[in-house]
């Protein structure tokens, strides 16, 4: 591969990933975005030092955004590392649930997607195809908008539902009519509807449907 990835390339193993992308990771000009389940996704043995250093670097690029699963906060060392990135100017957000896919997008011109582990190492797909890069970036952006800022996440600044609130939330999710839900919960219809209104306010939702989506984003459906 020369100075750019040609359309779509699939490679296997962290060392080959580093070999093929080191110059690209060193040439970020405007924006570096990364979605990962944990802090080791892009810095495994063999490629760890160079990849981790480049992926965490914030001083030579205009903007760095990192979207991570809650598992990335599993220990104090990881939390301290992310706080340091924020102090250096990176934007870090935590998704409400494990991320189904992991990716890096550089300057909206190159996308790297991490696949599954296999006998020959982890598979990675690299692409510079504008349509594919744009699609990956749009999905990242959508996930970013629903995630929580790192500092707010660590402070626990999420809506808190008491047992009654969660019961009403489950009733909404069941699709039952107000009358049936109120009867099953042992409430008057008026009380049930009042609690639904309070729930919408707590979740900053304009509709019951939006409340369900918001609760899912925040991991409150369990």
List keywords for this structure.
elongated, 45% helix, Arc Repressor Mutant, subunit A, 9 helices, alpha+beta, Endonuclease, Chain A, 222 residues
Structure description:
The protein is an alpha+beta fold. The chain has two domains: 8-155, Endonuclease, Chain A; 163-217, Orthogonal Bundle (Arc Repressor Mutant, subunit A). Helices cover 45% and strands 17% of the residues. The chain is built from nine helices and eight strands. The chain has an eight-stranded mixed sheet, with helices on both faces. Helix 3 (76-87) links the parallel strand 3 (63-68) and strand 4. Helix 6 packs across helix 8 and helix 7 (178-185) crosses helix 8. The longest helix is centred in the middle third of the chain and has 17 residues, at 130-146. Mean pLDDT is 80; it is low at 44-59.
CATH superfamily of the largest domain: Endonuclease Chain A
Largest sheet: 8 strands, mixed
Shape call:
elongated
Instruction: Give the class from helix and strand content and strand pairing.
Output: alpha+beta
Spatial separation of the terminal alpha carbons: 47 Å
Number of strand segments: 8
Low-confidence stretches: 44-59
Instruction: Provide the domain count.
Output: 2
In DSSP terms (H or I, runs of 4 or more residues), the helix count works out at 9
Beta-strand percentage range? 15-25%
Order of helices and strands: EHEHEHEEEEHEHHHHH
* Radius of gyration computed on alpha carbons: 21 Å
- CATH topology (fold) name of the largest domain: Endonuclease, Chain A
């Amino acid at each position: 591969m020369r100075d750019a990835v040609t359309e779509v390339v699939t490679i296997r193993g962290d060392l080959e990933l580093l070999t093929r992308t080191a110059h690209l990771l060193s040439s970020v000009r405007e924006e570096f975005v990364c979605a990962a389940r944990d802090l080791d996704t892009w810095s495994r043995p063999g490629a760890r030092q160079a990849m981790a250093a480049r992926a965490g670097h914030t001083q030579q690029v205009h903007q760095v955004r990192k979207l991570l699963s809650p598992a990335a906060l599993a220990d104090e060392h990881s939390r301290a590392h992310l706080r340091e990135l924020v102090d250096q100017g990176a934007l870090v957000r935590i998704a409400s649930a494990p991320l189904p896919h992991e990716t890096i997008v550089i300057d909206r011109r190159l996308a790297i997607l991490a696949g599954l582990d296999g006998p020959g190492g982890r598979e990675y797909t690299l692409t510079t195809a504008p349509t594919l890069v744009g699609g990956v970036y749009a999905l990242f952006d959508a996930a970013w908008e629903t995630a929580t800022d790192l500092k707010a996440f660590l402070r626990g600044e999420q809506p808190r539902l008491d047992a009654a609130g969660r019961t009403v939330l489950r009733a909404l999710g069941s699709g039952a009519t107000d009358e049936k839900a109120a009867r099953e919960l042992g409430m008057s219809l008026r009380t049930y509807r009042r609690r639904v209104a309070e729930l919408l306010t707590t979740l900053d939702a304009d509709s019951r449907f939006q409340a369900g989506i918001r609760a899912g984003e925040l991991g409150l459906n369990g």
